[in-house]
Amino acid sequence: MKFLKTLFGFGPDPREDLVPLYIAIVHIAREPAWYAELGVPDTLDGRFDMVAAILSLVQVRIEAEGAPGRSAGTYLTEVFIDDMEGQVRQIGIGDVLVGKHLGKMVAAMGGRLTAYREAIADPAALEAALVRNIWRGEPGPDARPAVVAERLRAISARLGATAWGDVLAGRIG
């Protein structure tokens, strides 16, 4: 596809450069421990919530770059939306409703980004945000929001210590 775009004068899609980073985000979000050991619901919503959580941490790291990060943050969001559109279509949502579902997902992602950006420095606030967003206010008996918060804070710290080029290349694990 990249070849055809270049051949017909469209030029390369700058979002393609962010795909390795997005793949790394999804890889971290799908680690079985989140679900099997920490009680994150192993559902479509639970998986979306973990992608949103990790993506939020990466977006906060990107924001820390200032101007150099602006386009990367925008393109990464577009990669996320493209992926979510594919996921929505894969589960059988028809064309008429895809936009409505994507709108809700993008709004949810924006809310989570705001919540996690504001709470990442405060373990209790982060735990409360996770309970609200991942467990919808009702963590079950297997839920371990304090441990999830601790792991997310560790990921955030690693991201903060990761060189900008490595972040862009998806070397964030």
Question: SSE layout and pairings?
Answer:
Layout: H1 2-7, H2 19-29, H3 32-36, H4 44-63, H5 67-90, H6 95-119, H7 123-133, H8 145-161, H9 164-168
> Overall pLDDT, averaged?
90
Low-confidence stretches: none
Structural class: mainly alpha
- Distance between the first and last residues' Cα: 28 Å
Instruction: Give the helix level as a range of percent.
Output: over 70%
Number of helices: 9
Q: What proportion strand? A: under 5%
- For the CA atoms, what is the radius of gyration? 17 Å
Order of helices and strands: HHHHHHHHH
Number of domains: 1
Strand segment count = 0
The main β sheet shows up as: none
Could you say which overall geometry the principal axes of the C-alpha atoms support? globular
Describe this structure in words.
The chain is mainly alpha-helical. It has one domain (22-166). It is 72% helix and 0% strand. The chain has helices spanning 2-7, 19-29, 32-36, 44-63, 67-90, 95-119, 123-133, 145-161, 164-168. It is globular and about 55 Å long.
